Amino acid sequence: MSEKTYNVLFLCTGNSARSILAECVLNRLGRGQFRAFSAGSFPRGTVHPYALDLLRSQNHAVEGLRSKSWDEFALRGAPKLDFVFTVCDNAAGEMCPIWPGQPMTAHWGLPDPAAAEGSETEQRLAFAETMRMLHNRLGIFVNLPISSLDRLTLQKRLHAIGMEG
Predict the structure, then answer these.
(1) Are the C-beta atoms of 140 and 164 separated by less than 8 Å?
(2) How far apart are CA 14 and CA 153, in angstroms?
(3) Known catalytic residue: 88?
(4) What single-letter DSSP state applies at residue 69?
(5) In whole angstroms, what is the distance from residue 40 CA to residue 86 CA?
(6) Alpha-carbon distance 117 to 104, whole Å?
């Protein structure tokens, strides 16, 4: 008997950094159990070059990554979502589309590395720190006994993960 593959959508306003990083990290950590996607409420249209550099340096596949609207995931024929996580405060406060199937949701706010100021090194360090936090949170997420948790307990666990550093 094969286990269910869970579809997870990461949302951010611009879909150029945090949500893209989260998509790649979960697709690696959750291979076979999770399939990750990312989108934005107001997509920038391009993935931030520092995000792409960081992903390449860690041997993540970057082909096909693009900044896209969350509207794509509310359309007929879109993947049925099991989880939707906001990774920026702006997206958490925005009116989201109605997701078919009532996926579990949580806010996992992270500082925006694309807004980091300072030298190039300092800006790239902001991306690395965001990646570290995502890796920590997603490492916890992929190890949850999802199928054995009731909905309320799972929701509490998802909320708690958003508080992890």
Answers:
(1) yes
(2) 31
(3) yes
(4) B
(5) 10
(6) 34
Catalytic residue among 29, 78, 96, 104: 96
Report the SS3 class of residue 12. strand
Spot the catalytic one: 88, 91, 114, 126.
Answer: 88
12 is catalytic: yes
Answer for the pair 64, 30: CB distance below 8 angstroms, yes or no: no
Structure tokens at 148: 């054995």
Would you call 6 helix, strand, or coil by DSSP? strand
Cβ atoms within 10 Å, residue 80:
11
pLDDT at 30 over 80: yes
pTM for the whole structure: 0.93
Q: What is Dmax (Cα atoms) for the chain?
A: 52
pLDDT digits (tens, 9 = 90+) for 75-127: 888 899 999 999 987 655 666 666 777 899 999 999 999 999 999 999 999 99
24 included as an active-site residue = no
Residue 152: count other Cβ atoms within 10 Å of its Cβ.
Answer: 8
Instruction: Catalytic residue, from 8, 9, 11, 12: name it.
Output: 12
Residue 10, H or E segment: strand 6-12
87, 22 contact by CB (below 8 A): yes
